[in-house]
Amino acid sequence: MASKRIEITGVVQGVGFRPFVYQLAQEHHLMGWVCNTSAGVEIEVEGKEEALERFLLDLRAKTPPLARIESLSAAEVEPSGYDRFAIRPSRAQEGSYLLISPDIATCQDCKRELLDPSDRHYRYPFTNCTNCGPRFTIIEDIPYDRPKTTMRAFTMCPKCQAEYEDPSDRRFHAQPSACPVCGPSLTLTDAQGRKVPGNPLPSSAHLLKGGKIVAVKGLGGFHLACDATNEGALKRMRERKRRPAKPLAVMMATLEEIKEHCQISLEEARLLISSQCPILLLPWKSESTISRAVAPRNRYLGAMLPYTPLHHLLLRETGRPLVMTSGNLGDEPIAKDNGEVTRLKDLADFFLLHDRDIYVRCDDSIWMVEGSPQPLRRARGYAPYPIHLPFLAQEVLACGGEEKNTFCFTKEGYAFLSQHIGDLQNLETLDYFEESIDHYKALFRLQPGIIAYDLHPEYLSTKYALEVAARSNPRPHLLPIQHHHAHIVSCMIDNGVEDKVIGVAFDGTGYGLDGRIWGGEFLTADLGDFQRVGQFEYLPMPGGEAAIRRPYRLAAGYLYTLLGEIPSLPFLAEIDDLEVEVIMRQIDKGLNAPLTSSCGRLFDAVSALLGVRGEISYEAQAAIELEMLASQAEAQGSYPFSIVGQRGVSVVQLKELLAAIVADLQEGISTPIIGLKFHETVVAIIVEMCGRISRATGLKGVALSGGVFQNRLLLRKAKEALRQAGFTPYTHHQVPTNDGGISLGQAIIAHSKMRSV
After folding, report:
1. What pTM, to 2 d.p., does this model score?
2. CA angle, corner 152, sides to 149 and 156, nearest 5?
3. pLDDT score at 700
4. Which of 362, 388, 409, 446 could join 416 in a cystine, given CB atoms 3.0 to 4.6 angstroms apart?
C-alpha cells in the first residue's frame, strides 16, 4: 500500500472537481478523502502504487471541462488505513485564496432537461449543475460552498439533496442546485410594483410580443428587453434610456436563428456557443428582419445566445429576437437588486423578477473576430478569471481610467482584471467601483502595497487612489502611470511579450507628460519605461469637451489651423455663421481650445468634414459611421502627409492630408471613397513611422493598442501592411484594446518600476 497527499490550485471549485475526484478514486479502487480549502483542493489517497500513478495521470488528463488546474503537487505520506473514499467538509485557511469560476452558460444536459416534459426540471428557469450556472455573481467568500453564496436562502428539498449527495449524479455537490419545489422563483410586476397574475414567463412573452418593454432580472443584473423587430418598441426604449443611436445587443434563441440575420464564420460560431456566451459583433445580413433601429448606420449587429434557463425559456416563449440591453440609465451601473426597481420604473413597463440575490454586478461581455477573437468588453463569462503573467508580480492595485473603467490586481503569477465597471462619471458608478475593489480584496486575500493610477488629475479613479493612500496605514507606494504607456504594456502582456517594442497608441484622450491631450502616439516601450518618439501634430479642440460632442467644431478648427481658412463645404450648412466665427476666435486667442495629438479626434474631424456625423450621442459615433461607409468602397490609394523632426520627436503633419480631402470633396468624389483613402493614409502613417523607428532602434515588434483599434477596417489593414513591411504586429486577445485594458498595463508598469527601485 502507498499513500499520497495532493494539493491542487486553479479553477477547481464550483466546476464539479470534487465529484470528479471521488468518481476517479472509485474507478481506481482507492481510499481516502478530498476537500475544498481556501487555497484550492486537497486530496489524501491510498491504495496500490500502480493505481495511485494512474489516478495522478487521470487527474490532469480527465478534468471536468470547466476546471483549470494551475498547479498539482503530490507528496508521499504514511498510509492511514482508510476504509472508503469521502468528500470532507470544506476547510478555511487564513490568507489563502483560490481562482473563482466565472458564471457559466447553460450546459446541454440542463438545456435538455429544461425542455423535457418528463423531467422534474422542465421549464424551471434556475436549473443548473456542476457544469453550468451562476458562480462569480453569487459567491460572497471562499471556500465555495452554498452557505457562502446567495443560494443559502434556499433549503434543498429531499430530491435535490439526494442528487447533491449522489456521487453518480451530475448535481453532486453543485452548490446552486435547485428545483421548482425548493429554489428561486419568478414574479412579474408592473412599473408600480403590483404583481401581475398568471404565469410570469408566458405573460412576459405576451407583453414583449405586444410591444412592451420588460426589465428582466438575469445573472449579473437587469436587462431591458423588447421585440427587436418592433420599431415602436425600439423607439420608446431609446427615448426612455436616452440612447438615441448607440447600438443595442440582440439575443436570439438558437445559432440557426442568428445565421438568418448575420454572416458567421466557424470561429465566430465557436465563440457564440462557448460557455462564456458573449455578445459578438457580426456582419449584418441585408435581408434580416431585425429593425435597423437596433444599430443605425452600422454594418455589424451585436448578437448573443441565451445563457441562462430563464433566457432560453423567454426566447422560446416569445418566438422572436429580443433586444437585451443593460438595465441602467445613462452612465449608471447596471441594476441588480429587486429594490432597485425604482431606478428603472421610468424605463420599463413591466418587471420580470426573481428572488435569488445577485451579489456581484456583471454586464455581458462583448467580442469581435478580426483575424482572431478580440474582447471589447470583458465581463460575464470571463471575470474574475485572471490573466497569466510571464513572471511573479508584487501585489499591486491599478485603478484604471475614467471611461470603460476596470481595475486590476496583480498577485504572484496572476493579474486579476475586474469585470467592466463603466464610465466613472457619477457617484453610483464610483460606489460600484469601490465595492468591487473591496470584494476582490476579500476573495483573493489581497493587501496591495503599491497603487497605480492614471496621470490625469481629474479622473475619479485617480482621486480614489490618492484618497485611499492618504488614509492607509502603512501608506502604499503611489505610482502615476502615463495612459498610452499603459495601453502598450497591456498589449504586450496580452501577448506574453517582455522585450521592448514599438508602441502605436491611438485613442481619443490621454493625459500627456507635457500636460496636453495625447492620442496619436508612437512609443518605444518596455514593461517599465517608454519614450515618445513620434506623434500626430497638435491641433486645437475649440470648445474643449464641446468639440468631442460636436465633431464639426474639430473639422472647422483643423481646417482653419492647417489651411488658414475654412473653405465653403457642405458640412458648414448645418453650423451657424456666428459659431464658425467663435471657433476661429477661440483658436486665434487660444481660449478654451486645448491642443491634442489624438488620432481619435482626427477620425471625428474627418467624419464631420465629410458630412457623415457632425454631432454625436455616444462615444466614437462619428468615427464608427465613417468606418461603416469606408468599408463599402474599393481601394483608391491614399492621401499625402509629411513627417518632420521637432525636439527629437517625429511629428506627423496633416496639412497636405486635409487639403487633399477638401480637393476630393470639391471634385465630387464619393464619401465612401474619401473615407477609405483616409483609412489607407492612417495605415501608411503607421508603417512609415514604424519604419523610421525600426531603422533607428532595430525593433521589429509593434504593439497596436487604444480605442481607435476597435476600428476593424483600420486594424485589418494595419496588421496586413505591417507584416508586409517585415514587422510582427501584436494585438489584443484577452483584454480590451480600449480603456478597459489599461489597468492591466498600469499594474505591470508599477510592478516593473518598483522592482527596479
Report:
1. 0.95
2. 130
3. 98
4. 409
